[in-house]
Amino acid sequence: MNHSHFSAFRELHFTPYPFLLPNAWDAASAVLFQQAGATAIATSSAALAWSLGYADGGALPRAELMAAVKRILRVLQVPLTIDLEDGYSDNPNEVAALVVDIMQCGVAGINLEDGVNTPAMLVDKIVATRSALAGTPLFINARTDVYLSQLAQGDAARDLSCERLRQYLRAGADAGFIPGMTGLADVALVAAEIGMPLNLMVLSGMPAISELAAAGAKRFTVGPAIFQASYAHAQLLTKKFLHEQATEALFSDALPYEWMNARFLK
To answer: pLDDT in tens for each of the 266 residues of the chain?
Structure first.
């Protein structure tokens, strides 16, 4: 565990400014985001799984996950947090063992989510994880999928999300994550009541980050959006090459070979 990275990562949640955390999927994307000025890097479970040839939703083998984390850490100088979905198990002790292994690689934080399971299951996973960590610092961002899984609607969704995050805080979470929540009034209420920093996932049509931050949200991630945009562009370039023999766009915005190669000379 890199204690300085943990401390720096934690402090980023308590600055006066919104904490913008891009989601990488491999070593190359991570090092490019770092070069662009990111103060920390997150992974997207979907983008990471897709990049390795697996579907999102718990299908990524543990060995593939661990190898990917180590490759990303090899090129980073900023803190890294890993999206572990639901911990890839319903067994709290198995989840805790995975988190300890991830922590020992040198990450600063993790995400754990409740999905469609009961909040009690995630509570047990967080408690087991804190016990297994035995005081070693690791930032746990607890995600509730009330909105994404449509477990409730309107005010009920907001209130249920808030109650779940309060349970996760008591269990040992450091921050709360509510992907799918977009209303400024809801953000303001939840941010004021959960007792820990609030993370939102940026979605099309949401209010501006400045407005969401003013309402109380602290951390902003983008899920697989950068992956999707990047691969949409790659697909378009490939179609133009295959069907139009068009090549100019392949080179007009390309990163220089020497510059790119130098990012990995270590």
So the answer is: 568 899 999 999 999 999 999 999 999 999 999 999 999 999 999 999 999 999 999 999 999 999 999 999 999 999 999 999 999 999 999 999 999 999 999 999 999 999 999 999 999 999 999 999 999 999 999 999 999 999 999 999 999 999 999 999 999 999 999 999 999 999 999 999 999 999 999 999 999 999 999 999 999 999 999 999 999 999 999 999 999 999 999 999 899 999 999 999 87
Q: If we measure between CA atoms, which residue out of 207, 197, 190, 193 comes closest to residue 147?
A: 190
Write the single-letter amino acid at 205.
G
CA distances from 50 to 43, 44, 57, 141, 148 (A): 12, 10, 11, 22, 20
**What is the strand order of the sheet 198-201 is part of?**
19-21, 219-221, 198-201, 175-177, 139-143, 109-113, 80-83, 41-43, 23-24
> Residue 62 in 3-state DSSP?
helix
Q: Which tokens sit at 101?
A: 């292994």
Tell me the CB-side half-sphere exposure of residue 128, using CA atoms within 13 A: 19
In angstroms, the CA 164 to CA 121 distance is 11
**Taking the alpha carbons of 118, 101, 40, 44 in that order, is the dihedral positive or negative?**
negative
**CA–CA gap between residue 31 and residue 185 (Å, rounded):** 36
Domains of the chain: 3-226 (3.20.20.60)
**Please, are residues 80 and 108 in contact by the beta-carbon 8 Å criterion?**
yes
Calculate the CA 250 to chain-centre distance.
Answer: 30
Report field, pTM of the whole predicted structure over 0.90? yes
